[in-house]
Design brief:
The complex is a heterodimer of chains A (301) and B (461). Chain A is an alpha/beta fold. Chain A contains ten helices and eight strands. Chain A has a four-stranded parallel β-sheet, sandwiched between helices. Chain A has a four-stranded parallel β-sheet with strand order 6-5-7-8. The two termini of chain B are 48 Å apart. The chains are: A alpha/beta (301), B mainly beta (461).
Chain lengths: 301, 461
């Protein structure tokens, strides 16, 4: 009786442990990489986003459902540059999935392919939440997406060689579309070049670098430390001369500090989606930049 | 500084270039030729140095970050192939990426009790080792040193050394020192060494991650106040299911409370566990589990000879511990930075079969705690915890004069905590405890700080 029960349990475990591969199972740490994976993988992939667009990607609980999702994944597609340092290493270790451990083919970190900005010359936590590898918010610049897309498409083909022609074709189509979209956005965004702006967190360096926006103040006194009223007052005094035209914050951030400053200066506070799904309109990776460029332009009056 | 270096370098270059024609030079008019040549070279390099100096001044005027010119658009990746593993990509970053991640946790407190903590005892539950509310007044708790890194592509290692400062001096305790596999098939992981066994909820976590100043009553009496961290081996398997299912078990030396004496040739304790978890939508997560510990003890001593109440007890026999736990977390959009509520509960049931001071004992006791923690605004949390113990009331008459006698009491505590965190590296906590676990009720106040420098390991759910 007992033996039969054990055999049954063993059979169940084995059956559960050896699933037939249907589609490439992708665990995407942030929605932008999930969206890019869907563009490049099409019908051959199944994507699970670990974070919602309104979640601060620095702070995610390594909750059981995520461990289960990593366990099943053929590849984890994450931002890297230490953005997920607080949760991804734990998920990987707890999952017991050998295919996605650091160094394995199934471990893809987008920022590894990008030249980072704001690489600090020294690291001191008194300076706040500083990323030693550079600013991790690479999604701000669509040129970064071009680079990552190529690398990611190659990686899909390596892991799933049967469909490599499919991935190659999808990448070609995506890239053609993407390059022309970039030209369109850059043309539309030309009036933004040199425009003075205020940002809430150092989330936007790649976006401002791309569009030539000039950041004259950051609301957080130090990265990751929420601003106090007295600090905001100081910023308010400091920006009198530079006359910023926009105040930017991300959809996942508390917009209070931005609104505080907006009320006192009359400068419009703009909540950009930051990632795919951050606002309702930014529902795919093309729309993300479309929406951001349009929001910036609209708020210039 | 770089300017000085540049000058030294350029002088070196000039010598290098100037030295070649000098060596080949003959006498006479060749000399003037060489001189002219040198002059020309000097001018050329001085001009180049001036240009470089201008650029340095330019860069120095900008903020001390790596800025790339805004016109330089699509940046090509330096390497097209798979990047080198970022290892466990810690705060380490560049040059020391291959060194272990190092973290130090500081933990200090001020405690005020109405009753003398040295006389603290729970009727019916003899306390082992350092269980209890800890010292009164100012004290430095455990300072934890943690080192961890991937050994290679197959193994990960981590060690935590606790320095415990007390009146007797500094005690060094090796809390954890283990290796863990990274590349076993079928979702299997194997841990070996000394580590916090997968038992219940709190046992796998370091005390500095707890929501309250001391562990709840069931941990005080059933696990000795902290963790069951024995030497051994543990295997776990995560099933490839949408719902999180982890199954596993371990074999241990049997030398850490509640085990004792390393019986069965130093393989005297066993564990088994099953955990389940998942989400409801994006804002709700849950975890539930059951675990089991089988341990043996040989002459396990409770109480100290210098206690005011001489209740020295020695236990030999077997212990079985059954634990059920759950955790539920609600956080709008899963954004824990802004707001969340967690509810954690654990129930423990202990069976003992053996002898106390040579007198036969066979009893079952249990305990539970339930705690709620609410982060109401970034940085601030408030929480409440209730713990209770249910003693074994039928004991041999000859054991009645000992602390195994519960005196008909149901020990319990109410704890209220409020804490503030600047970020995840610093926490300051104020806690009030109404303790009804001892014969005389106690009111305790704790003011505690827990801060860390260096790498800060991710916390378990």
């Amino acid at each position: 009786m007992r033996m039969r029960f054990l055999v049954l349990i063993f059979g169940f475990v084995l059956a559960a442990a050896l699933p037939a591969r249907a589609a490439l199972d992708i665990f995407a740490c942030e929605p932008e990489w999930g969206a890019l994976s869907r563009e490049l993988g099409g019908a051959k992939v199944k994507v699970r986003d670990a974070t919602s667009p309104l979640q601060d990607p620095h702070f995610v609980t390594a909750r059981p459902s995520l461990i289960a999702a990593v366990r099943k994944a053929d590849i984890v597609v994450c931002n890297g540059a230490d953005l997920e340092i607080g949760w991804l290493p734990l998920l990987l270790r707890k999952s017991g999935n050998r295919d996605v451990q650091p160094g394995a083919k199934g471990n893809f970190l987008a920022a590894d392919f990008i030249n980072k900005l704001e690489i600090p010359t020294s690291v001191d936590r008194a300076l706040g939440d500083i990323h030693p590898q550079g600013n991790p918010h690479i999604v701000g610049n669509p040129h970064n997406i071009s680079i990552v897309a190529q690398a990611l498409s190659q990686r899909f083909a390596e892991i799933d060689p049967e469909n490599s022609a499919y991935y190659q074709a999808r990448y070609q189509a995506f890239n053609d579309h993407w390059q022309s979209a970039i030209v369109k956005w850059e043309t539309a965004a030309a009036p933004l070049r040199g425009l003075p702006i205020v940002v809430q967190h150092k989330t936007w360096v790649y976006l401002t670098d791309w569009l030539g926006l000039k950041v004259v103040a950051t609301l957080e006194p130090r990265p990751g430390i929420p601003p106090t009223t007295s600090h905001l007052q100081k910023v308010l005094n400091e920006i009198r001369d530079s006359k910023p035209r926009l105040i930017l914050n991300a959809a996942y951030e508390n917009s209070k500090p931005s609104r505080w400053l907006a009320e006192r200066t009359g400068v419009p506070a703009v909540t950009l989606p930051y990632t795919v799904g951050g606002t309702k309109e930014a529902d795919d990776i093309f729309q993300l930049y479309e929406v951001m460029v349009n929001m910036l332009l609209e708020n210039l009056e | 500084m770089p300017r000085t270096l540049l000058k030294v370098f350029s002088v070196f270059i000039i010598f290098l270039f100037a030295g070649v024609p000098l060596a080949l030079a003959d006498e006479g008019d060749e000399l003037s030729e060489i001189k002219a040549e040198m002059q020309r070279l000097r001018e050329m390099y001085e001009e180049a140095i001036e240009r470089l100096e201008d650029r340095i001044e330019d860069l120095e005027a900008r903020p001390a970050v790596n800025q790339v010119s805004q016109t330089e658009t699509p940046r090509q990746p330096e390497e097209e192939q798979a990047p080198v593993s970022t290892v466990s990509a810690g705060i380490a970053g560049k040059s020391n990426a291959f060194n272990p991640l190092i973290g130090i946790v500081f933990n200090g407190r001020y405690a005020n009790f109405k009753q003398d903590p040295d006389l603290y005892k729970i009727p019916g539950f003899p306390l082992f080792g350092e269980a209890g509310p800890g010292p009164e007044g100012f004290s430095l708790g455990e300072t934890e040193l943690n080192f961890s890194a991937n050994i290679n592509d197959l193994f990960y290692a981590s060690t935590t050394i606790a320095l415990d400062a007390s009146a007797e001096g500094v005690e060094v305790e090796l809390e954890e020192a283990f290796i863990q596999t990274l590349r076993l098939p079928l979702g299997l992981t194997l841990k070996a060494g000394r580590f916090f066994a997968a038992l219940g909820y709190l046992n796998e976590n370091h005390t500095h991650t707890d929501n309250f100043a001391i562990r709840p009553l069931p941990y005080q009496v059933f696990l000795g106040g902290e963790n069951y961290n024995d030497d051994g081996i543990q295997v776990a398997m995560v099933l490839p299911t949408t719902t999180y299912i982890q199954l596993g078990g371990g074999i241990f030396r049997g030398d850490d409370f509640p085990a004792g004496g390393a019986l069965n040739d130093g393989a005297g304790a066993f564990t088994g566990f099953a955990r389940f978890g998942g989400d409801f939508g994006v804002s709700n997560s849950w975890l539930a589990g059951g675990s089991y510990l089988y341990a043996k003890a040989d002459g396990q001593m409770f109480g100290a000879p210098d206690d005011v109440f001489p209740d020295l007890l020695s236990f030999s026999g077997k212990i079985e511990l059954f634990i059920a736990h759950f955790k539920y977390q609600w956080s709008p959009q899963g954004n824990i930075k802004r707001r969340y509520f967690t509810l954690i509960g654990e129930f423990m049931l202990r069976k003992r079969d053996g002898t106390y001071n040579g007198i036969a004992y066979n009893g079952t006791d249990s305990g539970f705690y339930i705690e709620g923690m609410y982060k109401f605004t970034p940085g601030w949390r408030a929480g409440y915890r209730y713990s209770q113990l249910n003693p074994e009331n039928s004991i041999a008459a000859s054991l009645l004069p000992t602390n195994l006698n519960s005196l008909g009491m149901t020990p319990r505590t109410h704890e209220f905590a409020i804490d503030w965190a600047r970020n995840e590296f610093s926490l300051v906590r104020l806690q009030f405890t109404r303790d009804l676990s001892s014969l005389v009720p106690d009111t305790r106040i704790f003011l505690q700080f827990i801060m860390s420098i260096g790498a800060h390991g991710a916390h378990n759910f």
